[in-house]
Amino acid sequence: MDVRDHAGAGPGREPALRTGTANGRGVLEGAFHLLDVLAAAEDGAGLSELARDAGMPKATTYRLLRQLANLGAVQQHGQRYFVGRRLARLGGAWQPDPRLQAAAREPVRLLSALTTTVTFLTVLEEDRVRVIAATRGEIREVPPVLPGSELAEATAAGRVLLMQRPDGDAVPPGFTLAEWRRAQAAFRRSGSVAADHQEVLPGVCCVAVPVRRPDGEIVASVSALAVRPAVPAGLTELVLRASREITRNLGRT
C-alpha cells in the first residue's frame, strides 16, 4: 500500500512520495538527497545537472522533482529548479539545543558589550557550521549573524568545530590538504584558539575558542568578530572567559 502525504494528494496532483526504491535507495532517502543537492545550488539547477550531481537517473530525478514541487518543497522557474517556500519555512523552524542556547545567552551578550564585537555561538551539524546565538551590538559594518544561519568552514568558528570531529585529520569541505594541515598546526600552537586575520573578510578579524560541557566534551564554539585590521589586544582572553562561563552555566542546568 502506498504511503501518502495528504498535502500531496488531490485532484490533478501526484501522490506524495511513495515507499519503494529509486536507483537502489529508498524514495524518501532519495528525495532528501536531491533536496540537499538542490540546496547547495545557489542559482538553482536544471534537470540534467541535478540528476548528475545526485547520481540518479534523469527520469527518477524528474519524477521526484514533480512530486516535491506538488508538496511545495521545490519550485520551478523556466528550466531551473529551486528550493521551495514550504521547505524554507520548515527550515526556519529549526531549534538549537535549548540548554546550550540558554547557557550562552548572557556570556555572549556580555562579551559583545565588553569588546564592541559581533559575538556568536556555533555548533557543528554534520559538516555545517550553524549559529545558535548571536549579539551584534552597535556594529553595522557587517551583515547580521542570525541564529540558524550557516558560516563558512574557513571561518575561525568553523575551524574550531571541524578540528573536533572524530575524523579530524580528514580534509573537510572548503579546504585543500595544505590549508587544513596549516590550520591544524596553528590551532595546536595557539592552545585551541583559532583566529581570522582578514582572511575571510577584508578589514574584519575574528577569534574563536571551543566551548565544553562540564565533562570536557566540546559541544560548540564561541567567537568574537571585530571590524579591525588586527585582533584587538586582550580579545582572546575575554573570549576564553566567555567560554568558561558558558561551561559553568551548563553545569548549573
UniProtKB/TrEMBL annotation:
Gene3D superfamilies: 3.30.450.40, Winged helix-like DNA-binding domain superfamily/Winged helix DNA-binding domain. It comes from Microbispora catharanthi. Residues 1-22 are annotated as: Disordered. The keyword Glycoprotein does not apply. One of its GO terms (molecular function) is DNA binding. Residues 86-252 form the IclR-ED domain. PANTHER family: HELIX-TURN-HELIX TRANSCRIPTIONAL REGULATOR, ICLR FAMILY (PTHR30136), HTH-TYPE TRANSCRIPTIONAL REPRESSOR ALLR (PTHR30136:SF24). This is Helix-turn-helix domain-containing protein. SUPFAM superfamilies: GAF domain-like, Winged helix' DNA-binding domain. It comes from the Bacteria. One of its GO terms (biological process) is negative regulation of DNA-templated transcription. Residues 25-85 form the HTH iclR-type domain. The keyword Metal-binding does not apply. Keywords: DNA-binding, Transcription, Transcription regulation.
